[in-house]
Design a protein that fits this description.
570 residues; alpha+beta; Sulfite Reductase Hemoprotein, domain 1; Sulfite Reductase Hemoprotein, domain 2; 3 domains; five-stranded antiparallel beta sheet; 22 strands; 18% strand; globular; binds protoporphyrin IX containing FE; binds iron/sulfur cluster
């Protein structure tokens, strides 16, 4: 469907089961509280299995040992993944120490995973430790509310170590947006924090009694950095400044990356420009976008339920006019903005407050004590003496922010001693993977465990062709759901089956173009052979400063994806 042939505003038909579940959940309570005490299983039963996602948890099991357990006639080893809400990715050292201690003592893997949506996840929390996890978070002023399922999830903000007042202002808006769009139900407080039931009727004025049709993601972006990858998100506020002061936002709606292999009704889509809004309209506009998607999103098919599909069905102009009506605003034309980067600036930078900020590379965002590289202990040691804050980036890295000149050398010494400042190539710095095996129930191929060695092989290819100091934005995602954001990469691998991937080529460095499938269902050797051939051409034939993705398009290696709803599968 395109703008000339808009479809219905509301899709009639049989609602998916998730809608029944939300409706019957009594505002996300279900029978979770009772289920917690069911010692017969390590998991949650029936609807609760999905309901706990609204509370920030996924029930998982270790897929490496699933078959072995089945042979022994044991149920899979259930454990929860818990994802914190951390708008803009900022966390204090005290909070960090609390999560570090918990991860070590109470999770199966002992690690903390920094995610590519600026928060952290614990993997492997047994059922008996779930409530203590929520209580620990609450004690230090954190929660995991609305970090999964059909709600507005953790709000991202361009990571920056207070180098400008603009970033600070943008961050405040990320927090306000997150708070404003949170579920109002008291279910979380009652179940996990033992807070009293209050005798009011629950209401969800923004999200509605059956919440949103599908997950919903929001960002606040400060150009020229597009580190948050706005086009992977439903609602994006691009900061516009006059004389260094924030005056409003450009609003872009309807980005999203998830697809289904071979299902041509699905596609990755970049967000559409709606227009400029003044600051005082921010929350009203956010609310209007969310409620329009709430009312018009397709609740009969979860694979067609995201904002990107609603926009394509009803037409961008009609969706935009409805947002204007609901927010009581007429959008001004988009103000000029440009992006130049998506990556991090590793190492030390000095901020406006004369303090120093250190960006550390954390491969795959996985903080664990490896032999000879005690990364997790190193961060904990820094947290014990650090008076600034920590900032998690949307590239799964970590900034130690707000270090006085006098504290620099101690922090650097700790970081170096724990392998947190080992030199890595530009290629590795610009490579990313989703979690995938062993915990993700949807994984089709390895991603996080595959990436490190794969990058080494790509580095070798780059060196052989004389471009060893340069980089190609390279991402691996274990299945087409796309958590690793491979469909905004210059080279993207999307897992198909164990050891097999679809290879996508032709995104750009700043993340504003969707790549195109170049080869289907190939193994690592075949992928590397293709990369070898393409990098050789890029190294020889490119224009000055031309990125690999841009070159692939100009040289005709792949046709650009210009209008994903119609040409993604061509
Ligand atoms: C239908 C679509 C999707 C489904 C069903 C889905 C499901 C999941 C699941 C089950 C996990 C947990 C894996 C684990 O930690 O063991 C996960 C992780 C994650 N997903 Fe998704 N996902 C989808 C799309 C996306 C997209 C498009 C993005 C971002 C563009 C995204 C961002 C993330 C992030 C940030 C994590 C945390 C770990 C990481 O940094 O890789 N997801 N997702
Ligand atoms: S992309 Fe697939 S395999 Fe990777 S974390 Fe997301 S759902 Fe799991």
């Amino acid at each position: 469907m395109n703008d000339k042939h808009p479809g219905p505003l509301v899709v009639e038909g049989k609602l998916v089961d998730a809608e029944r579940l939300k409706k019957e959940s009594n505002y996300l309570r279900g029978t979770i509280a009772r289920d917690l005490h069911d010692g017969l299983t390590g998991g949650f039963n029936g609807d609760n299995f999905l309901l706990i996602r609204f509370h920030g948890m996924y029930q998982q099991d270790d897929r490496d040992i699933r078959a072995e357990r089945a042979e022994q006639k044991l149920e899979p080893r259930h454990a929860m993944m818990l994802r914190c809400r951390l708008p803009g990715g900022i966390i204090t050292p005290q909070q960090w120490l609390a999560i570090d201690t918990f991860a070590t003592a109470n999770t199966l893997y002992g690690s903390i995973r920094l995610t590519n949506r600026q928060t952290f996840q614990f993997h492997g929390i047994l059922k008996k430790n779930v409530k203590p996890a929520h209580q620990m978070l609450h004690e230090v002023g954190l929660d995991s509310l609305a970090t999964a399922n059909d709600v507005n999830r953790n709000v991202l903000c361009t990571s920056n170590p207070i180098e400008s007042k603009l970033h600070q202002e943008a961050y405040e808006w990320a927090k306000k947006l997150s708070e404003h769009l949170l579920p109002q139900t008291r279910a979380y407080a009652e179940i996990w924090l033992d807070q009293e039931k209050v005798a009011t009727t629950d209401q969800e004025p923004i999200l509605g009694a059956t919440y949103l049709p599908r997950k919903f993601k929001t960002t606040v972006v400060v150009p020229p950095h597009n580190d948050v990858d706005l086009h992977a998100n439903d609602m994006n506020f691009i900061a516009i400044a006059e004389k260094g002061k924030l005056v409003g936002f450009n609003l872009l709606v309807g980005g999203g990356l998830s697809i289904d292999h071979g299902n041509k009704a699905t596609y990755a889509r970049t967000a559409s420009e709606f227009g400029f809004l003044p600051l005082d309209k921010t929350l009203a506009v956010a609310e209007a976008v969310v409620t329009t998607q709430r009312d018009w999103g397709n609740r009969t098919d979860r694979k067609n339920a995201k904002t990107k599909y609603t926009l394509e069905r009803v037409g961008v102009d009609i969706f935009k006019a409805e947002v204007e009506k609901r927010a009581g605003i007429k959008f001004a034309p988009i103000r000029p903005y440009t992006f130049t980067t998506r990556g991090e600036r590793f190492g030390w930078v000095k901020g406006i407050d004369k303090k120093w900020h250190l960006t550390l590379f954390i491969e795959n965002g996985r903080l664990l004590d490896y032999p000879g590289r005690a990364l997790k202990s190193g961060i904990a040691e820094i947290a014990r003496i650090h008076h600034g804050d920590f900032r998690l980036t949307a590239n799964q890295n970590l900034i130690i922010a707000g270090v006085p000149e006098s504290g620099k050398s101690t922090i650097e010494a700790i970081a170096r001693a724990h392998g947190l400042m080992d030199t890595v190539s530009a290629q590795r710095e610009n490579s990313m993977a989703c979690v995938s095996f062993p915990t993700c129930p949807l994984a089709m191929a390895e991603a996080e465990r595959f990436l490190p060695d794969f990058v080494t092989r790509v580095e070798n290819i780059m060196t052989q062709h004389g471009v060893g100091d340069e980089h190609i934005v390279l991402r691996v995602t274990g299945c087409p759901n796309g958590c690793g954001r491979a469909l905004l990469a210059e080279i993207g691998l999307v897992g198909k089956a164990p050891g097999r991937y679809n290879l996508y080529i032709g995104g750009n460095r700043i993340g504003t173009r969707i790549p195109r499938m170049y080869r289907e269902n190939i193994n690592e050797e075949e992928i590397l052979a293709d990369i070898d051939q393409l990098v050789a051409r890029w190294a020889q034939e490119r224009d000055a400063d031309e990125g690999f993705g841009d070159f692939s398009i100009r040289a005709g290696v792949v046709k650009p994806v210009l209008d994903p709803a119609h040409d993604f599968w061509e």
